[in-house]
Amino acid sequence: MEQPIEAMPGEPWHSRADWFQRCLWRNYFNEETGIMNQWYPRDFITKDDNFYYWWQAHVIDVLVDAYERTQDPVYAERIRSLSRSLRAYNGGTFLHNYYDDMEWTALAFLRAYLATGEEEYKEAVQELWADIRTAWNDHYGGGMAWKKDQTDYKNTPANAPAAILAARLYGLFREEEDLEWAVRIYAWNKKHLVDPATGFVWDGINRLGDGRIDYDWEFTYCQGVFLGAGLELYRVTMEPQYAQDAIRTAEACCARLCHPESLMLPDEGIDDTGLFKGILIRYLVQLGQQFPEQQRVREVILANAACLWEQGIDAELGLCGPSWEQQPETPIQLSIQLSGLMLLEGAAALHL
């Protein structure tokens, strides 16, 4: 059993992130499958549970966070082992019906390639990116489809991460076609799914086949990935409009989704939505690092991290819940645990 957090109240954020990384591995890793269980405790799983492929991509992402921060070879080995096991578990391929799931996997592998230099990750990214590009079609004037069997549904979760991926690929390998993809995908997302009055990002259009935008789906996820796309395009083009877009969306997000006094982000529930806050935090951290003068961004991250650490973690089990203000109640899904870990890693990144 890991040391309870009460025993280390004065530890810096990187030590807290280390502890929660160990808790993730202890509580969720399945030696039989080589990937993470989707629930703690493991015996809560039923035969009817979906396999949430994209959660495993975020496991790789947080392992890369730890490896970049510590250079501990244990994390590099875990990334390697888990990625190979994920391919096997997914039927011998990284390809999938959901385009956004593949985008997250490609983003995680691209980071793994940069961190370790291992060619197998680069090869996986190239395989995924070739398939991801087939998501673009003419429904609603372009944009990336959400999944292969519903190509007329377009949403921010399938478009903004694709723009991030394309921009990063261009930044690394300087293929003009990748930049063209990033610019085109981002432009479609901004035109169709961003409120021109505020910069707040909507989820999707035509989910039910009626051509409607889901204005009432106000998710932290969408804000995070769109501002992340703007930030990546700013980095590779240095065009100020992209930075302005990212900052504007961050401001709209904080104003609309954070508690006005405590700055706490909302409890968005379980399943996929359990990951949403962590994804927002990941890209808010990057925005805060790029533009240190954005104090509100830093305040939101650290307020949420402090509250999670002081109120929202079960010290004995090493678990957190969907609310970062309350003690968790088991069973706890992997998605929720990952969001909490992204928050602690984000706080550690801001204090490096």
Automatic annotation (TrEMBL):
Pfam families: Glyco_hydro_76. One of its GO terms (molecular function) is hydrolase activity. The keyword Cytoplasm does not apply. InterPro entries: 6-hairpin_glycosidase_sf, Glyco_hydro_76, MUG_Protein, O_gly_hydro. GO terms for biological process: carbohydrate metabolic process. Gene3D superfamilies: 1.50.10.20. Keywords: Hydrolase. The keyword Hydrolase applies. It comes from the Bacteria. This is Glycoside hydrolase. It comes from Paenibacillus albidus.
